[in-house]
Write a structure and sequence with these properties.
By secondary structure, the chain is of the alpha+beta class. The protein has helices at about 10-15, 20, 30, 160-180, 185-189, and strands at about 35-45, 55-60, 70-80, 95-100, 115-125, 130-135. It is globular and about 65 Å long.
């Protein structure tokens, strides 16, 4: 009664994509069924504003749910479109400069990006053991909204960070270029 749109449209479209199936976990599925829209917003460099950047924003809009209070989760990609002045021939097109996610306001006990593990620790001096509870990162589609951060001034990890950023950008590009414009095709299989 009073249903608008096609129930589970985005969930079905997303789980029909091989690229997304790899990162969607079973515990993500009830949350993904709450998506009512995915929107794409392009941002462009503004000549009057030197701080403005070219890129795009992915907005995932959710129906009210038991997992978090956010109405929408966003991911913003910032691109560099200018060739390197020292090596203009190496320019392959826009490069990712960075991306930012959003904070998910999880309801108590509903955060699927973390899990609690219990570890037994032995004290060698006293011969006693105790159980320690620890919270660790859990595989989840919702880790997509917490992209890798680029540390300032660390050159050792630049290649590793760049690889993570490129994989993250590849997923963002897939959602932007494939999933959103072809959602009906994915939905119908």
């Amino acid at each position: 009664e009073n249903t608008k749109g096609i129930p589970n449209f985005w969930y079905t479209a997303m789980t029909s994509c091989n690229e997304l199936q790899e990162i969607i976990q079973e515990h993500d599925e009830p949350i993904l069924k709450c998506i009512n829209d995915i929107r794409l917003i392009f941002t462009k460099k503004n000549a009057e504003d030197a701080d403005s950047k070219m890129g795009f924003v992915l907005e995932f809009h959710f129906n009210p749910n038991e997992y978090f209070t956010n109405e929408a989760l966003t991911k913003t990609y910032i691109m560099s479109v200018d060739p390197d002045e020292d090596d203009p021939w190496a320019f392959d097109g826009p490069n990712i400069v960075g991306c930012t996610g959003c904070k998910i306001d999880w309801k108590s006990g509903k955060n699927v990006t973390e899990k609690t593990v219990k570890k037994k620790q032995n004290n060698k001096r006293k011969g006693q053991s105790r159980v320690v509870t620890k919270t660790v990162k859990n595989d989840s589609f919702f880790n997509f909204f917490s992209p890798p951060e680029v540390p300032e001034g660390e050159e050792e990890d630049d290649e590793d960070i760049q690889t993570l950023l490129e994989a993250d950008l590849e997923m963002g590009h897939f959602i932007r270029d494939q999933l959103i414009p072809r959602a009906v095709l994915y939905f119908t299989g």
